[in-house]
Write a structure and sequence with these properties.
The complex is a heterodimer. Chain A is mainly α. Chain A has a domain at 70-204: Cytochrome c oxidase, subunit III, four-helix bundle (Four Helix Bundle (Hemerythrin (Met), subunit A)), CATH 1.20.120. In chain A, 73% of the residues lie in helices and 0% in strands. Chain A has helices at 3-6, 32-59, 73-96, 99-129, 138-169, 174-203. In chain A, helix 2 runs parallel beside helix 6 (174-203), helix 3 runs antiparallel to helix 6 and helix 5 (138-169) runs antiparallel to helix 6. The two termini of chain A are 42 Å apart. Chain B has three domains: 34-229, Cytochrome C Oxidase, Chain A; 284-481 and 490-527, Cytochrome C Oxidase, Chain A, CATH 1.20.210; 529-597, no CATH class. Chain B is 59% helix and 1% strand. Chain B contains 14 helices and two strands, in the order ααααααββαααααααα. In chain B, strand 1 and strand 2 form a beta hairpin. The longest helix of chain B has 37 residues, at 78-114. Classes of the chains: A mainly alpha, B mainly alpha. The interface between A and B is large, with 51 and 67 residues. The structure holds protoporphyrin IX containing FE and copper (II) ion. Protoporphyrin IX containing FE binds at residues 60, 63-64, 67, 85-86, 88-89, 92-93, 97, 153-154, 413, 417, 420-421, 425, 463, 477-478, 503, 506 of chain B.
């Protein structure tokens, strides 16, 4: 769909003939779930961008004390990457109709993601133990806030993933779960990118 | 191409949208309570919004009582007054207007007007309502917690919002912030539906430029909301951190009652930017659906096509885009760089151009039209007058030098009640009178409606015009009472008392309206099909009120825009969108129903 061409039409002139030449309604040639997920990703992007703006604004004040980055964040990042890779693999096997691969890869992706979340929780525990509280410094508060928000988004994704898996076991038609798996993969890649940016923000500030 | 016989329509493959696997309710619960039908969700949204709106109305009476008759009510003290203001403002803007326009009208009208069977993600749509209801419940709960609801003002500016001097700083503010966050989550679920339904679920022939302006208004407003609400979400979450965990995102170093608080270094201005980055588009989130609906009401009830349809669409899109670059005009008095002030004043005044254009087009639509003074038309006319009025005071306030002395006076209160209080509410009323027959199959009572319109319209002016004057005198906003103030004459108090009496009368008229809504469910005149002789698709359904799945066996096919009224040469004064050219000559007083394709007009 070419938005600008669409909105320059003159609707009062363009009455269709009685039959065949009904106008195309000009939707995107995409499944609606795909469009939905893309719109959602735009919203989430806006959300995290605004956090990033707030972060850099607050960072400029003199009381900012950067936090140490626990080494555990690195293996966590690896988990998230592996989760993304597994889902990518899953969407390939869905396309090729390899059901066994598909199931194992989906479960693997779920496992890596859960590992990531558990890892993040451990990071929190470690930081608490070292006495880094949200009240002490905005850098700490941002760390907890952003990791929590990112984790919640991943948790939501896991919910959808679990639902997809149960539906696949329940014998959903391939056409449909192919799309679901694809969209899960897109969402995971997106959250991976968000995480990498957040991680970068934490590392370099 | 021209000689294709009508029966050829059967060969046209139906669009993808026809194959929506429709959700079917299996029990009473899933049909009426946990329903996934957009029409039921619309009614749920609307009833909840109106119910919580009534709370805001009652709060406005209490505030007016205090302002009109200070020191007469022992049950209203200064803290109460702040709480009333805050809850009134927040409920009206977010929980009533936003929810009603998008969740209510959006859900009901989008699928019907674009020719779809339902929203594209019905399950998510259902969740959207339940999360909204939860948000409302949390909001209401704040009335009952120790300390009561927050009194921080609907703008919730930190640091005062969470300091102990502000009423409700114990629990009220937390519940308010949580409720807003929930509202935003719920809205996002609904918003995805509205946008994707408009983009992807239009029926065959329904190009973007054949959408009724109502859909355009709601569509663009939803996009604004999806992009603007995250800013409020960020602000809310960060403030929850400050309040609950003691972080200092927004909180500067503060000495409270001689004690140094543990806060320090935070930036209250950051919150103001976040808030108004949401807050200004919010004005248009409410205004754009109103613009769209009014355009349709005018066109139908003046039996004339809307003047300058393309310009109307472009204006909606341009206003939507511009509304993201004007937010700091709410912060002229916050000590910003004068060049910023200059920039934001300029963008603010530029928005007046497409807005004025819309007003001209409405006026030209009415020019020499066959105006029917029905209730929806009266309310639509009332909207235009009020909106122009509020728009003009907006031009005053948009200029930094004029705004600085008027900021935080009753002039501002009068201004924003005109543009985003009275004006959209008038549209909502007009829309309810217009679509009630579709939703229930019955007309609302005309006499009660006339009473409702005249009292509300004249009353609103009697309330808010004097407030402009009080503002010019210097009466500040958000003041519990003025006491002896040298620059305010005693007569100002008489004026205030008068305004209060009128506000109570206007309130009474709303009760009459509610009574009308309930009574007409049973006793209203039976409307029949398409009582207003409207051309858009929502009136061309098989059943009135439309049943589950909206249309009959086949989705309607669209051959024209929604504004073919009084077309020269056509036997009727309107041509429904789903009537092809060669069927126009026939008597189509009853439009062909979707079920029988286009061959046979329904009997
Ligand atoms: C009969 C109708 C109404 C009456 C009598 C009324 C009255 C009032 C009064 C007395 C105030 C407080 C003024 C002050 O002391 O600062 C107020 C504030 C406000 N009202 Fe209304 N109002 C009405 C309808 C509405 C509607 C429909 C809206 C929807 C947008 C609205 C939005 C607000 C807002 C945003 C505030 C500011 C709250 C604040 O300062 O934090 N009002 N109203
Ligand atoms: Cu504004």
């Amino acid at each position: 769909m070419n938005f600008f061409r669409e909105i320059t039409q003159k609707p009062w002139l363009t009455t269709d003939g009685p039959g065949g030449e009904i106008r195309d309604h000009g939707a995107f040639a995409l499944p609606k779930a795909t469009v939905g997920v893309r719109v959602f990703l735009v919203v989430v992007t806006v959300l995290f961008s605004l956090f990033a703006v707030a972060y850099s604004d607050r960072m400029a004040v003199a009381d900012w004390r950067a936090m140490p980055e626990p080494w555990l964040l690195w293996p966590n990042t690896l988990m998230l990457i592996l989760g993304s890779v597994a889902l990518h693999g899953a969407s390939l096997s869905a396309r090729r109709g390899r059901m066994d691969d598909l199931r194992s890869r989906l479960c693997l992706a779920g496992a890596f993601s859960i590992a990531f979340l558990v890892g993040q929780a451990l990071v929190w525990r470690e930081l608490f133990a070292l006495g880094y509280y949200a009240a002490d410094n905005p850098a700490n508060a941002f760390f907890y806030l952003l990791t929590a928000l990112h984790g919640l988004h991943l948790l939501g994704g896991l919910g959808v993933l679990a639902w997809t898996v149960t539906r696949i076991y329940g014998g959903l038609e391939p056409e449909k779960f192919k799309r679901s798996v694809d969209l899960c993969a897109v969402y995971w890649h997106f959250l991976l990118v968000v995480w990498l940016i957040l991680f970068g923000l934490l590392l370099f500030t | 191409m021209a000689d294709i016989v009508p029966t050829a329509v059967d060969d046209i493959p139906s669009a993808e949208v026809a194959e929506v696997d429709l959700y079917h309710a299996r029990s009473w619960w899933t049909k009426y309570v946990f329903s996934q039908d957009a029409k039921v969700i619309a009614v749920q949204y609307s009833c909840t919004a109106i119910a919580i709106g009534l709370v805001a109305l009652v709060l406005s009476w209490l505030m007016r009582l205090q302002l009109g008759f200070p020191e007469s009510f022992s049950f209203i003290d200064a803290s109460d007054y702040y709480q009333f203001i805050t809850m009134h403002g927040m409920i009206m803007v977010i929980y009533l207007l936003t929810a009603l326009f998008l969740g209510g009208f959006g859900n009901y009208l989008i699928p019907l007007m674009v020719g779809a069977r339902d929203m594209v993600f019905p399950y998510v749509n259902m969740l959207s309502f339940w999360v909204y209801l939860l948000a409302v419940a949390v909001l209401v709960a704040s009335f009952f917690v120790p300390g009561g609801p927050t009194g921080a003002g609907w703008t919730l500016y930190p640091p005062q919002a969470i300091l102990s001097g502000t009423p409700g700083s114990e629990y009220g503010i937390i519940l308010m912030l949580v409720s807003l966050a929930l509202f935003i989550i719920g809205f996002t679920m609904g918003g995805l539906n509205y946008v994707v339904t408009v983009l992807q679920a239009r029926t065959r022939g329904m190009t973007l430029m054949r959408l009724p302006l109502t859909v355009w208004g709601i569509f663009v407003a939803t996009i604004l909301a999806l992009l603007a609400f995250p800013a409020l979400f960020v602000g809310c979450v960060m403030m929850i951190f400050d309040r609950v965990l003691g972080s200092s995102f927004f909180m500067p170093a503060i000495v409270e009652m001689g004690q140094q608080l543990s806060y320090g270094g935070g930036s209250p201005l950051l919150f103001q930017h976040l808030f108004w980055f949401f807050g200004h588009p919010e004005v248009y989130i409410v205004a754009l659906p109103a613009f769209g609906i009014v355009s349709d009401l005018l066109s139908v009830h003046a039996r004339r096509h809307i003047f300058g349809y393309r310009m109307m669409v472009w204006a909606i899109v341009i206003i939507g885009a511009l509304s993201f670059v004007v937010w700091a005009h709410h912060m002229y008095v916050s000590g910003m760089n004068p060049w910023f002030g200059f920039f934001f004043a300029t963008t603010t005044l530029i928005i007046a151009v497409p807005t004025a254009l819309k007003v001209y087009n409405w006026a030209l639509t009415l020019w020499r039209a066959n105006i029917q003074f029905t209730l929806p038309m009266l309310f639509a006319l009332g909207f235009i007058v009020t909106f122009v009025n509020g728009g003009i005071t907006g031009l005053f306030l948009g200029n930094v030098v004029v705004d600085v002395p008027l900021s935080d006076t009753m002039f501002v209160v009068a201004h924003f009640h005109m543009v985003m209080g009275v004006a959209p509410i008038l549209v909502i009323f007009g829309a309810i009178y217009h679509w009630y027959p579709l939703m229930t199959g019955r007309m609302l009572d005309e006499k009660m409606g006339q009473f409702h319109f005249w009292v509300t319209f004249v009353g609103a002016y009697t309330i808010f015009l004097p407030l402009h004057y009080l503002g010019l005198l210097g009466v500040p906003r958000r003041y519990f009472e003025m006491g002896e103030t040298s620059f305010i004459p005693a007569s100002a108090q008489d004026l205030n008392a008068f305004v209060t009496v009128v506000a109570l009368i206007v309130g009474f008229a709303q009760i009459v309206f509610l009574f009308n809504l309930f009574r007409s469910l049973r006793h209203g005149k039976v409307a029949g099909r398409n009582p207003w002789k409207a051309a858009s698709l929502e009136w061309q359904t098989d059943d009135v009120p439309p049943g589950h799945g909206n249309f009959g066996e086949h989705l309607p096919v669209v051959y024209r825009w929604a504004y073919d009224y009084s077309v020269p040469g056509a036997p009727d004064d309107f041509i429904p969108q789903n009537v092809p050219s060669n069927a126009v000559a026939e008597n189509h007083a009853e439009a062909p129903s979707a079920a029988d394709g286009i061959e046979a007009p329904r009997t």
